[in-house]
Amino acid sequence: MDNAEAPSSVLVLEFKEDTALTEMMRLRVSSLQRSGQKRQDGERLLLPHEAVYRLDFPTQELNFSRWYFSLNAHGRVTITGISQHWTPDLTHLMTRQLLEPIGTFWRNAEDPEDTPLKWLEADMQEFGERIAELAKVRKVMYFLFAFKDGAEAANLSCSVEFTPDK
Q: What is the C-alpha separation between 18 and 16, in angstroms, rounded?
């Protein structure tokens, strides 16, 4: 996990913010607040520090290789995968559709800015493998990115490297 360039025999996919879907989910929250209604039982509402990101898979036969992640500041970013059963144009996001493990990267406020990011290596490996497995049945996968402890989307670069399945 670093900022090194990937060899040409691999596929590096960058997480892209889905601003339209993020806005749609924010509108759902504000609509519920305005009308005084409650969320559906089990519904997962978008929190103010979260945004929806996506990965688009040009091919479905992939093996996870590694993460590329940079955060040009202090803070914590958590990435939660959303199962292939969510159709955002038809249904609300439900908590049962959130996948484990989650990915977490961080740099503490007292760490110098050139300090390497910290992460839970085993969880990140399993998370990457899970993404590759789900890519077999999806052309796109959605994720919730949560920005905490001073982290901001503008300071983030995140991608995942795969090798094509032979």
A: 6
Please spell the DSSP secondary structure of the chain, one letter per residue: --SPPPPTTSEEEE-EE-HHHHHHHHHHHHHHHHHTPPPPTTB-PPPTTEEEEEEE-S-S-EEEEEEEEEESSSEEEEEEEB-TT--TTTS--BGGGB-SSPEEEEE-TTS-TTSPPEE-HHHHHHHHHHHHHHHTT-SEEEEEEEEETT--GGGEEEEEEEEE--
Instruction: Dihedral sign for Cα 101, 102, 105, 110, please.
Output: negative
Query: What distance in Å separates the CA atoms of residue 140 and residue 15, rounded to the nearest whole number?
Result: 11
Q: Six-digit token pair at 6?
A: 């990937």
Length, in residues, of the chain = 166
More confident: 123 or 87: 123
For 119-161, how does the pLDDT look when each residue is reduced to its tens digit (9 = 90+)? 999 999 999 999 999 999 989 999 999 999 999 999 999 999 9
Query: Can you give the pTM of this predicted structure?
Result: 0.90
